[in-house]
Amino acid sequence: MRSLSYIALAACICTSAGATEFSDTEAKVIDPYQVKFLKRQVDQNMSIGRAIKSIASHYPQDVVAIVEVALETYPDYYQEIIHSAISAQPSSTKEIVELAIAKNVSSCPAIVKLAISAEPSYVDFVVQAAANATPDELNEIVRVAVLTEPNSADSIVQTLSRQHPNKLVDIMTTALNTVPYVGEYVVDALLAIFPGQADNVVTTAIKESAAQREQILRILETAQDAGVADDRIRQYGLDAGFSDEELAGVLNDK
Questions:
Q1: Residue 252's pLDDT is what?
Q2: Which one of 2, 94, 101, 246 counts the least CB within 10 Å of its CB?
Q3: Residue 45: its pLDDT value, please?
Q4: How far apart are CA 41 and CA 156, in angstroms?
Q5: 199 has pLDDT over 60
Q6: Each residue's pLDDT tens digit, 112-124
């Protein structure tokens, strides 16, 4: 399968006489022949989104390169470009997100929401790329990601906590403030990779679920299943305002 670079080279050979219409500065920034190629595809498909999908289906290895050309050529259509590219070529999600953030086409959280909406199953790649690019926006990345794809909240928290272990409590707090009902799943995911952080994980989850007593009991059960000792489970429960009688069901459930 020919790549876009091959097409660009062929176009250069065939039309070298007209190449002077592009300045050296422009050539360094963006390949004018790829611009021509993209514009022809847009004309044929009557839409930048359909053009991106068509190109991605024929030249999947070049989708990131053509997205860069598209964002430079049609910046006002960045949402359609990103959504179409990720939908057509999900395996390039991380690179497309990194490119969109680098080009500052929108705010990082907005790009995160757009990318997750395009392909929810690649949410971990999206948040990883976003957090690497803009670590100062970590909490907002967490908030937007779990709000956009709440069913993956545990995976999002796990991925970002691996990446930023010193921000574990902040990541948990933001996630559970946004979608409180996922507390037990977040606890399970985090204890799997941070068993030595049980105190931080469980106490943070309980604190953020303080208004939901049934949820706290499920968190305690999850922590017990993950291997946290019964005496610690009991203490977490007592500190949360439960009586020994109320905790008996949890402690005797094994």
A1: 79
A2: 2
A3: 85
A4: 36
A5: yes
A6: 999 999 999 999 9
Q: Tens digit of pLDDT for each residue in 208-232? A: 987 788 999 999 999 999 999 999 9
8: its two tokens: 């660009």
pLDDT digits over 25-72, tens only? 333 467 888 899 999 999 998 899 999 999 999 999 999 999 999 999
- Give me the DSSP letters along the chain: ---HHHHHHHHHHHTGGGGGGS-HHHHHHS-HHHHHHHHHHHHHHTSHHHHHHHHHHH-GGGHHHHHHHHHHH-GGGHHHHHHHHHHH-GGGHHHHHHHHHHTTSS-HHHHHHHHHHH-GGGHHHHHHHHHHH-GGGHHHHHHHHHHH-GGGHHHHHHHHHHH-GGGHHHHHHHHHHH-GGGHHHHHHHHHHH-GGGHHHHHHHHHHHTTT-HHHHHHHHHHHHHTT--HHHHHHHHHHTT--HHHHHHHHT--
